[in-house]
């Protein structure tokens, strides 16, 4: 029941992350905005999560995983209600920030509970169990979002989180054990401010190229200050005895390369759930419900790959699997640069299924590589760092895709075929970014590439 409970939190988070994408054009019409400039709704959620995740490990140690998990669900539901009530884009983005604050704690704290409760030899099976129910969110999200937009309104894509949240709170009170007291360190507030400001500034600089309408000088200002803040955090962490994320974590090659690979690989591929529904509705004439149904092949192919990924990694090692599969992800993305209105339905489904399959293998391999060598003393910090990088890459990926799409739209124009050309060029650019990240995984040493480290004989985690 504990694993089902953690999976429920994963379900809430993934459902909301995917249900919005299909509804963006309808939301844009309702709010009087352009559908090609709605990425701020996605970026605000992901960026808030990335900004708050560094504090989740300390919060869980300080107040207890059970109490923090309940608070996360309540905050997530409150943000969902505020999203449904938002009358304009600015208030909707603000409500998404509240929702993201709750979502920031759902998956990391739930995964931390499993890390501390399940024996190491059963950890792979436990996390696989958590990941599969959580994948029902992406399976239902786009289809449910498109259907709700057509039969009701986009407001209901947020209101459906309310009953799920109530069930989650009651289940947490019933099934999540009260944790034993854990020694916690003093919170590194100065380091947190530097890290959070750096992430926000860099992400806003990317989003400002299109969605926020910032001028070039403002974008450059944000980017420089953001990079300076991140550099200052690194120097701060080197001299502080108890930083948020100790530089000692990066001594392990698997975690270091896993995190960098996660960041740059997801920077390219995470734009796909944002770009594909827009492409189908804006240029190919799909309705919201039809666009949502077209996302099913991605989710189904993703789920089907879960049982294949682990044997492949055990047989060939992380290095070979990730280098080859990263190139395949990029090629799958590049096929969308060749789409045309009226192309056969079977071909579109094949494109979506191919991307879903290789992208699922990519996420599983990257995540397990990152976490596989963590010891109990570094589990909380390493787990939070991975979640932060994932959410940061997602937000930056959507912001970058929005900026690229805006640039090509300005170049080609916004009428019919011209808009399609802008989408094609955007898919090609984001595919190249993904393929370039294969060079990071190429740096894996043989001892780090093994599925099971020599010093440990149990399975490695598969967060999905």
Instruction: Give the overall form.
Output: globular
> What percent of residues are in strands?
under 5%
CATH C-level class of the largest domain is Mainly Alpha
Regions with little confidence, pLDDT below 50 for 5+ residues: 453-464
Helix content class: over 70%
Provide the CATH superfamily of the largest domain.
MFS general substrate transporter like domains
CATH A-level architecture of the largest domain: Up-down Bundle
How far from one another are the termini?
A: 19 Å
Structural class: mainly alpha
Protein name: EmrB/QacA subfamily drug resistance transporter
Keywords: Cell membrane, Membrane, Transmembrane, Transmembrane helix, Transport
Domain Major facilitator superfamily (MFS) profile: 2-449
InterPro entries: EmrB-like, MFS, MFS_dom, MFS_trans_sf
Detailed description of the structure:
The protein is mostly helical and about 475 residues long. It has two domains: about 1-190 and about 240-450, MFS general substrate transporter like domains (Growth Hormone, Chain: A, Up-down Bundle); about 190-240. Helix content is about 75%, strand content about 0%. It has helices spanning about 1-30, 40-50, 55-65, 65-85, 90-115, 125-135, 135-150, 155-160, 160-175, 190-210, 215-240, 255-270, 270-285, 290-295, 295-305, 305-335, 345-370, 380-410, 415-435, 440, 445-450. About 55% of the residues are buried. Mean pLDDT is about 85; it is low at about 455-464. It comes from Pelomonas aquatica. It is a multi-pass membrane protein.
């Amino acid at each position: 029941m504990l694993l089902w409970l953690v999976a429920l939190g994963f379900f809430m988070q993934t459902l909301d992350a995917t249900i919005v994408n299909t509804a963006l054009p309808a939301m844009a019409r309702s709010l009087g905005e352009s559908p090609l400039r709605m990425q701020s709704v996605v970026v605000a959620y992901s960026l808030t999560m990335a900004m708050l995740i560094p504090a989740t490990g300390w919060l869980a140690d300080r107040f207890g995983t059970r109490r923090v998990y309940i608070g996360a669900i309540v905050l997530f539901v409150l943000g969902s209600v505020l999203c449904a009530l938002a009358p304009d884009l600015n208030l909707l983005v603000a409500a998404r920030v509240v929702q993201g604050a709750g979502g920031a704690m759902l998956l990391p704290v739930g995964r931390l509970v499993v890390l501390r409760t399940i024996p190491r030899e059963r950890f792979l099976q436990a996390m696989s169990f958590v990941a599969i129910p959580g994948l029902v969110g992406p399976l239902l999200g786009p289809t449910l979002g498109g259907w709700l937009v057509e039969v009701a309104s986009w407001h209901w894509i947020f209101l459906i989180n309310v009953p799920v949240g109530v069930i989650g709170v009651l289940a947490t009170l019933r099934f999540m054990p009260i944790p034993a007291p854990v020694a916690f360190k003093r919170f590194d507030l100065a380091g947190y401010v530097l890290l959070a400001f750096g992430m926000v500034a860099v992400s806003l600089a990317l989003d400002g190229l299109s969605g926020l309408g910032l001028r070039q000088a403002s974008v450059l200002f944000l980017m420089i200050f953001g990079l300076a803040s991140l550099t200052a955090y690194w120097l701060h962490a080197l001299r502080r005895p108890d930083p948020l994320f100790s530089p000692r974590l990066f001594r392990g090659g698997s975690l270091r390369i896993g995190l960098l690979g996660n960041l740059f690989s997801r920077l390219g591929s995470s734009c796909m759930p944002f770009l594909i529904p827009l492409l189908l509705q804006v240029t190919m004439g799909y309705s919201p419900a039809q666009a949502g149904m077209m996302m099913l092949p991605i989710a189904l192919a993703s789920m089907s790959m879960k049982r294949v990924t682990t044997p492949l990694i055990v047989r060939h090692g992380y290095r070979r699997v990730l280098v080859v599969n990263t190139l395949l992800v990029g090629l799958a993305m590049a096929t969308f640069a060749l789409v045309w209105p009226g192309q056969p339905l079977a071909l579109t489904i094949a494109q979506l299924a191919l991307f879903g399959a290789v992208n699922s293998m990519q996420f599983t391999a990257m995540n397990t590589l990152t976490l596989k060598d963590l010891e109990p003393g570094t589990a909380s910090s390493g787990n939070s760092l991975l979640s932060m990088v994932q959410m940061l890459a997602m937000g930056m990926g959507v912001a970058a895709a929005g900026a690229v799409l805006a640039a090509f739209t300005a170049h080609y124009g916004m009428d019919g075929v011209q808009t399609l050309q802008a989408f094609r060029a955007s898919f090609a650019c984001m595919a190249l970014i993904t393929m370039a990240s294969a060079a990071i995984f190429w740096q894996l040493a043989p001892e780090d590439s093994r599925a099971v480290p020599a010093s440990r004989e149990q399975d490695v985690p598969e967060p999905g």
